[in-house]
Amino acid sequence: MSFLIDPALLYAQGRTYSALVPEEKRTPPRDTAAFAATMAVFWGVSVGLYLEQGWTKPLWKLCRAKSGRDWMLNSGVFRLDHERAGTGTHLVSGAIFATYPLWLWLGMRRRG
What we know:
Largest sheet: none
Number of strands: 0
Oligomer: single chain
């Protein structure tokens, strides 16, 4: 997961949920449970990568990144200095993390 692809993955997950669960079987508890589980996975892994938690090492190594934060910020595309990420980078990253529920919600609400 990375800031570059997470929004698209969350939107796609929401669309997939909407396609697989017919309208007549969708209930607020079911939708809330699916939403919460998806967000737990995305935030858990993505924040873990950003904070460079040891358990994320196999994932960022698989992506050929130098660290979890390198993967989250650069996604193998950009060249941001992940080793000297300061307050500004952390604030912007936090703001991006805060948008994650929006992408999932937009995908879940999309019809057709």
